[in-house]
Amino acid sequence: MLVLGVGVGVGLLGTAVPIVLFVRGLDRIEASHASVIGTAEPLVTVVLGVVLLGETATPVLVVGGGLVLCGVLLIQRTSRPTGMVAH
Questions:
Q1: Out of 23, 27, 34, 49, which could bridge 55 as a Cys pair, Cβ 3.0 to 4.6 Å?
Q2: 3-state DSSP call for residue 58?
Q3: Does the model's pTM come out above 0.85?
Q4: CA–CA separation, 32 vs 85, rounded Å?
């Protein structure tokens, strides 16, 4: 019974709630901004795992996080029309 409760909890808190919040958030922001947030999500997850759960940040993990961050910054630079100023 405990395993079933954990499975339901993970399903609701780890999958259903974030998806519902993400879709509702799309009503409030542009899709281009949501895609950048979605791209940065794995990096935020790793940082939270290291800070809150004491996970080990291996060199491969740090390099991968750096690549994700560079990708997000590159998307931000190239997706902005010429002449627009970032807020």
A1: 49
A2: coil
A3: no
A4: 16
